[in-house]
Amino acid sequence: MDTSSKENTQLFSKNSVQPVERPSFKTEHPSSEEKQPCCGELKVFLGALSFVYFAKALAEGYLKSTITQIERRFDIPSSLVGVIDGSFEIGNLLVITFVSYFGAKLHRPKIIGAGCLIMGVGTLLIAMPQFFMERYRYERHSLSSNSTLSISPCLLESNSQLPISVMEKPQSKRSNGCVQTVAIIGPIFGFLLGSLCAKLYVDIGFVNLDHITITPKDPQWVGAWWLGYLIAGTVSLLAAVPFWCLPKSLPRPRSREHSNSSSEKSKFIMDDHTDCRTPLGGKAKIMEMARDFLPSLKSLFGNPVYFLYLCASTVQFNSLFGMVTYKPKYIEQQYGQSSSEANFVIGLINIPAVALGIFSGGIVMKKFRISVCGAAKLYLGSSVLGYLLFLSLFTLGCENSDVAGLTVSYQGTKPVSYHERALFSDCNSRCKCSETKWEPMCGENGITYASACLAGCQTSTGSGKTTIFYNCTCVGIAASKSGNSSGMVGRCQKDNGCPKMFLYFLIISVITSYTLSLGGIPGYILLLRCIKPQLKSFALGIYTLAVRVLAGLVNYLFFLQLIDTSCLKWGFKRCGSRGSCRLYDSNAFRHMYLGLTMMLGTVSIFLSTAVLFTLKKNYVSKHRSFRTKRERTMGSTRIRKENFTTSDHLLQPSYWPGKETQL
């Protein structure tokens, strides 16, 4: 309690301000009574703002965790999912500049509350397609669920090529550090919620789960992606309630009214009496405020340190957003993990490392009282070390799964090309198979086949997840033992060394995330100190806009377009158009995902270096001009004193009464 009260006190004034005189007991008691309502309102504001940050971060984190689920549910390519994900930033693009400029002069709590309502309704709308579309239909191996019936997949494929849906059931069924910390906790819960929902089948409550023949590790599995959006939307709506009860501004405590200096936080949150007498106060008109918009924008971009830092941050966030957003997909495709496991790992390991790094950076800045140049050096150093560690991830990949006709030939050797006609071979030439279907079957030889038909299987027994195929001619020619030509539903697991590689990947990824996030607070301090105080709110709005749009919307399209080029096997919709990717080339995926991240990180390092040199140049020049001005002032003062002494000596008479006594 003592620590929190001390931090809240810092919102009103700097710690260095001390009262000149000790007040009496009578004046001290009523001032403490008047101070209580203000502190109470301030705590309510901080608590509500922290909850808003949590709700927003929860929705964003959950959105990242459902990219793969949305891609599979609607059978769309990754590039289109990037457009959907990037559309989250379009709202920021439309309003953030004006909100950051006019919001500082209007009723802030109500503006925040209105934003929460819009965000909550929008989040709920994302889940609505689930309730208006037909049930999810995935490709199945057989038409029968009778476990005693022996069928021929090879002949079955030639008669029916449409996917079969499952059997349905009836429809009846405390301070500014506090705020940033909660903003980091939000994505943790978002990814954990995504992990939980990914384990649940998409149509849970609407279908009979006993007839589901795929598992969460299957490329066709779709989790209950819509459930988390209902939860996140409800949380956002609840976060809006307190702001409609807060005043426009918080009154300044009487003990601080006559302070000559006040903290940056108090100027931002509290009502300053000097601002009320300016034409830009609460009664100012919108047109009067709008006149200063373009001059303020020109002043910001005319600041070289701010402009270079804006460019460096935009490029770096391009790198970081791409790395975080598509890390679940990378873990799934590279290490054979399920979507639920990938989201769980990111939410429980990676994001806490980021939170710890940001916290550590703030502690270092506060403990050692690092200057602006020191903050720029720490920001640059964390980037350099972090991306050097990131380089080691190139060596921690798994080889492609052995898939007949795509990554290996039907004889078990590496293919010359990835042409789709390689799916057909002499062993399945008599079977009229579809090359567009993806119904993976794992042979006893450790090779995955695109379907039981393409494996040349003649008979099968069992149903659902327990289906076993026999007399598979293509499995027999590549089997290590003669006559071992059976297989089972699903893809074969990655090689034995892949789990160890995944463990190493997690360790390096955590260290890298911690190192890169160390520069978060120093960079933020650098941003605030390089601009004029009256432009801080506007500068932060422009900064957020640039990061959201240039490092968000453009990044999604760029990353996913390259990722799509590494696809080996595309799925197809019932109408015949191309759907989502079923199998990626692990090596190509790794080089594109890590390579693009590393390339953008390198560019950001060069821009950060330019920020440091520009800052040093401006600092040295200002320091020299200050020294020169001070020397001139001291020199003129000394000359004036000497002239005054000389003139005073000349005006004095040679003798006056009492001269000897005084001497």
What brief labels describe this structure?
single chain, mainly alpha, disordered N terminus, disordered C terminus
Mean pLDDT: 76
End-to-end separation? 66 Å
Structure classification: mainly alpha
Taken from the alpha-carbon principal axes, the silhouette is: elongated
Sheet with most strands: strand arrangement: 2-1-5-4-3
Helical percentage: 55-70%
Note the main sheet.
Answer: 5 strands, antiparallel
Instruction: Tell me the number of strands.
Output: 7
Task: Describe the oligomeric state of these chains in a short phrase.
Answer: single chain
Total DSSP helices:
24
Beta-strand share of residues: under 5%
Rg, Cα atoms, Å: 33 Å
Poorly predicted runs: 1-36, 142-149, 156-174, 255-284, 644-663
Task: Provide structural commentary.
The chain is mainly alpha-helical and 663 residues long. Helix content is 58%, strand content 4%. It has helices at 2-9, 25-65, 67-73, 78-86, 90-102, 108-126, 129-132, 153-159, 176-199, 225-239, 264-269, 273-276, 286-290, 293-301, 304-325, 327-335, 339-367, 372-390, 473-478, 498-517, 520-529, 536-564, 586-651, 659-662; strands at 441-443, 448-449, 459-461, 468-470, 487-489, 567-572, 578-584. Strands 2-1-5-4-3 form a five-stranded antiparallel sheet, with no helix packed on it. A two-stranded antiparallel ribbon has the order 6-7. The radius of gyration is 33 Å and the shape is elongated. 40% of the residues are buried. Mean pLDDT is 76; it is low at 1-36, 142-149, 156-174, 255-284 and 644-663. Residues 421-476 form the Kazal-like domain. It is a multi-pass membrane protein. InterPro entries: Kazal_dom, Kazal_dom_sf, MFS_trans_sf, OATP.
